[in-house]
Design brief:
Elements lengths: L12 H17 L11 H8 L12 H4 L3 H15 L3 E6 L5 E3 L4 H7 L8 H15 L1 E8 L9 E6 L5 E6 L2 E7 L6 E5 L3 E5 L11 H5 L1 H19 L6 E4 L6 H15 L21 E4 L4 H4 L1 H16 L19 H28 L6 E4 L9 H12 L11 H7 L14 E2 L2 E5 L4 H4 L1
Helix pairs in contact: 4-6, 4-11, 8-11
């Protein structure tokens, strides 16, 4: 890494020396330059680990996952994406899509992209990296044979700590570290799937925890730490022992030891000792110094932070078990799920779908697409109503799906006579149109 440009000079000699030393090491290792200044919080975060939140707690991908709300939100978002199959299609001359039979590429996308990864784990990893770090990089392994040159035959899933994007001659390139050999190499943008989040600026995206929920997560960490220490210390407020008479240092030390022995919390084994009253002689009094959790509104604060984190991550609180407030997306779980899919899940899928198509195929025609039907398959009532509308019938109108297409969705074998969608007879709207050759003529 290099020092900052003149437009953004470094404000610290220590920081300049540190970056210079890192620059020399990275150049010897083969890495290219990256500009970092004190005005770039993301760059500083990468250099030193993290910048503390206003609460004083550093918010990183590791500390954020210690907050139950963050863990629950990412679990729900990752679970929603991981269950969606990625189907492959082609377009015929009439502009109609045709599903491609399951092939090697389908297997990579939906079963095992890498020898060490299942498809579900890979999709969850993408969600985690995009939410916590802004981006996720997955390298394409292409066939180098003459006959199938360029075809995707595998993926390499990278950790954000060991993959860095930069611009070179108008293109994105990626400096990656091989975890098996420890070597460094550069990958061209055509051979790297760059899964982005909101606010992509051409190199990186905005991290949810650093831009949308940094203060909320920092406050949640501080509240959890305060609560844990308070319980560990016997839930005692901070107090001062006041005496009108002068005490020697030995007497003050003995009093402190007696107080800690009596009210000092657990005995180290997770159990609480019996509380005995402390006798204060010579006119001694105890004065409380700290604010009680009730006065601090600690519970209300933690509830607010939970809602703040859910808002930043686009997950309705009710989906992570918070039933204190109803969702503005509707009162039923079906309406909440539809809102979650429409406003949170689909924008992610749209970005990642476009990235898959432009990197894997690199031309118009064939394409990959997430199948969203899996997200509503659990609601049998809604699915049955959708299938009835798709099949059509008397009082409903013409159908746009055949019986066998519906049966295929439910993994059931086709039946005889179920190939064509319902189309009403104009002379008798309640009956299907005859399909024999004589009648069709």
């Amino acid at each position: 890494m290099t020092a900052a440009t003149a437009a953004a000079p470094l404000a610290s000699r220590v920081l300049a020396d540190f970056i210079a030393s890192r620059d020399g090491a990275s150049q010897r290792a083969g890495l290219k330059n990256m500009t970092v200044s004190t005005a770039d919080p993301v760059g500083l975060s990468e250099l030193f680990g993290s910048i503390p939140s206003p609460s004083g707690f550093a918010v990183t991908d590791r500390t954020a996952m210690q907050v139950s709300t963050v863990y629950a939100c990412l679990s729900k978002l990752g679970g929603a994406v991981s269950q969606l199959p990625i189907e492959l299609y082609t377009m015929d001359d009439a502009g109609l899509r045709q599903k491609v039979p399951r092939n090697e590429l389908w297997w990579l996308l939906n079963e095992s992209p890498d020898a060490a990864w299942t498809s579900a784990s890979w999709k969850e990893w993408i969600v985690r990296c995009v939410a916590l770090r802004g981006d996720q990089h997955t390298e394409l392994v292409r066939d180098k044979s003459f006959r199938h040159a360029g075809d995707v035959v595998g993926f390499k899933v990278h950790h954000p700590d060991y993959s860095h994007a930069r611009r070179l001659a108008g293109r994105l390139v990626y400096d990656v570290m091989d975890m098996d050999t420890g070597g460094l190499r550069t990958v061209d943008q055509d051979d790297m799937l760059h899964f982005t989040g909101f606010g992509f600026d051409g190199i990186r995206s905005l991290s949810m925890i650093q831009h949308g929920a940094r203060s909320g997560i920092g406050n949640a960490l501080a509240a959890a730490d305060y609560t844990g220490r308070s319980i560990g210390e016997g839930a005692m407020p901070q107090i001062a022992l006041q005496y009108t008479n002068k005490m020697t240092p030995e007497q003050a030390a003995l009093l402190r030891e007696s107080f800690v022995a009596t009210y000092g919390g657990s005995n180290g084994l997770g159990t609480k000792a019996r509380k005995l009253p402390l006798v204060l002689t010579e006119g001694g009094t105890a004065k409380e110094l700290s604010i009680s959790p009730v006065d601090m509104q600690l519970l209300e604060s933690r509830q607010f932070e939970r809602e703040d984190i859910c808002q930043a991550m686009g997950v309705p609180p009710v989906l992570i078990g918070d039933n204190n407030k109803t969702s503005s997306w509707g009162t039923g779980i079906e309406q909440i799920t539809i809102g979650f899919v429409k406003f949170t899940v689909k924008p992610h899928l749209r970005r990642w779908q476009e990235e898959l198509n432009r990197k894997i195929y690199r031309k118009a025609g064939p394409f990959a697409e997430y199948d969203l039907d899996e997200l509503v398959s659990g609601d049998s009532k809604a699915q049955a109503a959708a299938f009835r509308s798709a099949l059509g019938g008397p009082g409903t109108g013409d159908g746009y799906m055949s019986v066998n297409e519906v049966r295929n969705k439910k993994n059931m074998p086709p039946i005889e006579g179920g190939e064509k969608p319902f189309k009403a007879d104009p002379k008798h709207p309640g009956n299907p149109k005859p399909t024999t050759e004589k009648d069709e003529e």
